[in-house]
Amino acid sequence: MPLRRYEFPEVFQENTDGTLSARRTVSVSGVTLAPDVQIGPGVLVGGIDFHQVKGRAIAGEEQNGTLIIRGFYQQ
User: How far apart are the C-alpha atoms of 62 and 42, rounded to whole Å?
Assistant: First the structure.
């Protein structure tokens, strides 16, 4: 499947406590996150601190209802 561009807020929401939560099932580097799993600042998921890439567009592809994150676009 071809890569598609997703805007960060389409995939993650910022919670009032400063954590991020996936809006849908996502997978990055073989690690799968279910919707609403909270990610704190400095926490690495599949080697990525999503707080460091917050706001960047996401390069990904759909596979069986899961968004496979392949990378991030430069701002």
Answer: 27
